[in-house]
Amino acid sequence: MAVRYVSRHHSPEDPGGLIAEALALGADFPGPAEDLLLAWSLRLADDLPAPEAARRLIERLGLASLSLPGAAGRLIELLRQAAASPPTASGRRRGGWQGRRS
Predict the structure, then answer these.
(1) Which domain holds residue 40?
(2) Number of domains observed in the structure of the chain
(3) Which partner for 87 in 47, 49, 56, 62 could form a disulfide, CB atoms 3.0-4.6 Å apart?
(4) Angle at CA of residue 25, ends 15 and 73, nearest 5°
């Protein structure tokens, strides 16, 4: 089943444009930023690690030095943390029944 996104902000590093749409709201973004970041990370393709996607988003959206108030600022902070985190050994997320296979 293919998922089709209608947001003009959709990209491989931001499926559905979740991050860009939230940041476009600026101070009006109600949050919680943590929930949005989780939804974003679950939508990423299996072959695109979250740290790499976060780095691409930070560069594309110019978030390296941007500071916003409230939940939008928290979202940017969380993206920066995600970009700085090391990828998993395999480079892929492992969860659910597949994560328990060894």
Answers:
(1) 15-86
(2) 1
(3) 49
(4) 85
How far is the C-alpha of 85 from the C-alpha of 70, rounded, in Å? Answer: 23
Is residue 9 situated within a structural domain?
no
Q: Is residue 72 part of a domain?
A: yes
**pLDDT, averaged in runs of 10, over the chain (102 residues):** 74 92 92 94 93 95 87 94 80 58 56
pTM of the entire structure?
Answer: 0.78
- Quote the CA–CA distance of 79 and 2 in Å, as a whole number: 26
Report the 10 Å Cβ neighbour count for 23: 23
Task: Please check whether residue 46 lies inside any domain of the structure.
Answer: yes
Write out pLDDT tens, residues 24-51.
998 899 989 999 999 999 999 999 999 9
Chain Cα centroid distance, residue 65: 17
19 is a domain residue:
yes
